[in-house]
Amino acid sequence: MTAKQYEKISAPFRTPGRTKALKTLNLLITAIGYAAYPLMLMYLYFMQIQTIIPAISVPAVGFCLLTVIRRKIDRPRPYQVLDIKPLIHKDKQGKSMPSRHVFSMTIIAVTGFIISPVLGAFLMVLSFMLAAIRAIGGVHYPSDVIVGIISAIIWGSLWYSILL
Fold first, then answer.
1. Entry pTM
2. Rounded to an integer, what distance in angstroms lies between the CA atom of residue 58 and that of residue 11?
3. Are 69 and 51 spatial neighbours (Cβ–Cβ below 8 Å)?
């Protein structure tokens, strides 16, 4: 992505009201995902469903591995490399690839499919929205969020198919 491409994709969101809405959605979707996950675990625990151990271990191990991988890659963030003013302010340097926010939301969505296809689909839509917001906001390249989504879907699908 170039600075010109970023300016083009972020232009519709550069009014104060739309920038605020973008930031609010970023926080809201993140909060929904992080609230949904422990609620799903509580549901699995109280319903005595045997999937609780995989529902804890698959996301946890995936998150840890992703963290190690992104430290190794240490890709600079768009606002570090391009001459842009990101819509979402972040002071963090590097560690852009893959997006951990998007990976987390997506692995939570994949876990949601264990409980209900409707829940999983709803959370997956939020995951795609979060991916778009993070790229439009200038904190990730589109490839960062795409790799975050794909890696969570592959990781979760593979391990849940083995463990369940």
1. 0.95
2. 38
3. no
